[in-house]
Structure formats: C-alpha cells, structure tokens
Amino acid sequence: MVKNLATFAADEISWTEAKGFPYAGTYIGLESIFKNVFSRLASEWIDYKFAPEDYIWNEDKVAAYGTYSGTYKITGKSFEARVVHIWKLKNSKIVCFEQFVDSQSVNYALK
C-alpha cells in the first residue's frame, strides 16, 4: 500500500485520521503517514483492511466508501466499521486525504 501511495502522493501530502479513531491526527508527508498510521496498522492488527463498495468522483476529489475490518492483536477482538475516504488531487497527485469513520467499534476492539 505505501509503495503504491508513494507513486501517486504529492511530496507534502496531508493525511487526516478522524477524531476518535485510534490514530487520530493530521500527518504531513509519507514518512509521517507511514510511521503514525500504516506501520501501526500492520503491527497492531491482524488482517486489517478496507473493503470499498463504491467510488464517487468530481473534478479533483474522489470519495471511497465501504467497511473497515480487522482483529486487534492484543485483545483478540474483531470489528467492522463503516468508513468514507476523501481524496483531493492536484496535478494528478494526491495532496490530501481525510477519513470519516464510525470509531466506536474500532475502539471497543482495543479494550
């Protein structure tokens, strides 16, 4: 995922994980995104994934909606959560990502 993202991301990509989500915050640049989001997803979860249902496109914005799922390694609890990703593009590169997610079931899996 990160290698694919690097191909399409602007140098100073802004990545926002939703308030209430375990990795909430805004991260700038691929190194920060990898450290604070993707490396944690890979090391803390089993089979964490986003299953998109559909995409909506309008000029320089793309929305993808679907379901997150996975099992938290420490507790062994699984979850499913509805999610929307908003991607903003400039010159064919991703400049901004924002996540909207029902975090309750994700946070329940952590306890």
Biggest sheet overview:
6 strands, mixed
Write down the secondary-structure element order.
HEEHEEEEH
What proportion strand? over 45%
Derived from helix and strand composition plus strand pairing, the structural class reads: alpha+beta
Q: DSSP helix count?
A: 3
> How many β-strand stretches?
6
Spatial order of the strands in the main sheet?
Answer: 2-1-6-5-4-3
Q: Determine the mean pLDDT.
A: 95
Low-confidence parts lasting 5 or more residues at pLDDT below 50? none
Overall outline:
globular
Give the helix level as a range of percent: 25-40%
Distance between the termini: 27 Å
How many whole angstroms does the radius of gyration measure?
14 Å
Explain the overall architecture.
By secondary structure, the protein is α+β, with helices and mostly antiparallel strands. The protein contains 3 helices and 6 strands; from the N terminus they run H-E-E-H-E-E-E-E-H. The protein has helices at residues 2-8, 30-44, 104-110; strands spanning 9-17, 25-28, 45-58, 61-72, 78-90, 93-101. Strands 2-1-6-5-4-3 form a 6-stranded mixed β-sheet. The radius of gyration is 14 Å and the shape is globular.
List the helices and strands and how they pair.
Elements: H1 2-8, E1 9-17, E2 25-28, H2 30-44, E3 45-58, E4 61-72, E5 78-90, E6 93-101, H3 104-110
Parallel strand pairs: 1-6
Antiparallel strand pairs: 1-2, 3-4, 4-5, 5-6
